Structure formats: structure tokens, C-alpha cells
Amino acid sequence: MDHTLGARVAVISGASAGIGRAVALDLAAAGAVVVVNARRSGPLEELARNLGAKAAAVAGDCADDSVIARMLDAALALAGREANLVVVNAGRGLHGSSLTSNPAEWEEMMRTNVLGVARLIRAAGHRMLIASGSKSGTGVGTPPRDIIVIGSVVGRHVSPFSSMYGATKFAVHGLVEGTRRELGPKGIRVTLIEPGFVESEFQGVAGYDPAWVNEMFDRIGPVLKPQDVARMIAFVASQPLHVHVSDILVRPTRQDYP
């Protein structure tokens, strides 16, 4: 772990399990101030206790503006300065296409995966700009300021077995790239991480058939662990001020599709 991460003030959404939890553990181990968010307060509070005195938990819906404000306010209160590393990780999956998935779940998924991401990017971006002392120009602060968003390989390579979920991540891809072009010249790095299959709670929550998941993992495994994606995030955040890793697509070595 790069020692420069110890200067970061991090906010991580969707941190009660999986990738978000792995990121929180890595950053806290490096000495960063860490604010974690998820809907499930029990696991979240336990994680914050394990992270130590430089950590705080803010439970709630990551797509709710008031919860987002509380997350960023908690970072400011804990560190005495605004968050400079925001990991937009919260999201949910959904098995099936526009023809086969459950339409009753579309709205909630769109709200979490697209609107929630946009709202956190917007709030974090505004605060980072104000903290830098200017809303325009090319000045950069020290340490770097990063907004890192978790997308998905199916947001770039659309798959028929999860095309509704993939459509939300396709939207996130466009949102992140547009924001990168807007904020990059102002010294804020906006990055998209697109993982392939990761072993986590995701598949169960998304409603994938366990037999299908096991067969897929057997065929392409070993699949990614949350720690593998967390390592990519640490790599991005550890780069010098003038270096921006804009996109990372990371798959298990044996994953051929998507």
C-alpha cells in the first residue's frame, strides 16, 4: 500500500460488504480517514469500529441527498477538511434482460445505480471545487482529489443475461467520462473501474441462479476477489498529481465473456 494514501480523507458508499468493505480496510490500514456508508447499519457500524478512531459510519440510502450530505459532513468533521477521495461503489444488480428481468425492480435499480451515482458525484465534485479555492482554472490541490466510480464490464460489453443492469452501468460509463472532461482541467481526477466477475454478495442479491453462478465460476475461475478491485482503486489514488488513470477494466484471467 502506498504511504501517500495516509493523507487521504475517503468516503466510500456501499461499504458494508464486498468491494466497498475491502477498499475501506485498505485505506484505513494506510492511515486514511475513512467514512463508510451502506443501508445495513449493523455491519456498517461493526466495520467502522474495526477501522479505528479515524473512521465513521453513516447508514442510509446512498441515493438520498440528505444521506450524501451527512457522509461528506462526517468526513469534514472527522478530518477537519473535505473528502479528497470519494469511492462511488454502492449499486445493485438484476438478472435478466429488458424482456426477462422483473420490471418491478427496474426503478429501484435505476435510482441506486444511476441517480445515486450522479448525486454523489455532483455533491463531491462541488465540495472539492470549493475546497480548492476556485471553481475554474487548472489549479490542483495537495494531496490529489479523486472521484472513483465502480462500473462493470457489462456496462461496456453488454450481455443479454443482464442487459437491464448493464444499461445502468452503460449510463454510468457516460456519466463518468463526461464528468472527467469537466473536472479534470480543474485538477479533480474522475475514474471508472469496470470489474468482471467478483466473488461477493452481488450475485445472490441480483437474483442469479446459484447453479448458473457456480457453473460460470468453475469455468472461468478463479474469479476476482473484492481485494483485487480494492487494489486497483489504491493504485489509481496513489498516482502523482499529474497522472490520471481514467479507466480500468479488470477481469478474471479466464473470463472470456462478457
Polypeptide structure, described:
The chain has a 7-stranded parallel β-sheet with strand order 3-2-1-4-5-6-7, with helices on both faces. 44% of the residues lie in helices and 14% in strands. It is α/β, with parallel strands linked by helices and 258 residues long. Helix 1 (18-29) crosses helix 8 (226-237), helix 3 packs parallel to helix 4 and helix 4 (106-131) packs parallel to helix 5 (163-183). Strand 1, helix 1 (18-29) and strand 2 form a beta-alpha-beta unit. It starts with 8 loop residues before the first strand and ends in an 8-residue tail after the last strand. It is built from 8 helices and 7 strands; from the N terminus they run E-H-E-H-E-H-E-H-E-H-E-H-H-H-E. Residues 135-141 have low confidence and may be disordered.
Short description:
This protein is α/β, with parallel strands linked by helices and 258 residues long.
Q: What is the H-and-E element order?
A: EHEHEHEHEHEHHHE
CATH fold assignment: Rossmann fold
Question: In which order are the strands of the major sheet placed?
Answer: 3-2-1-4-5-6-7
Integer tally of domains? 1
**CATH H-tier superfamily:** NAD(P)-binding Rossmann-like Domain
Radius of gyration: 17 Å
Distance between the termini: 30 Å
CATH class division: Alpha Beta
What structural category do the secondary elements indicate? alpha/beta
* Major sheet characteristics: 7 strands, parallel
Low-pLDDT windows of residues: 135-141
> What is the helix fraction of residues, given as a range?
40-55%
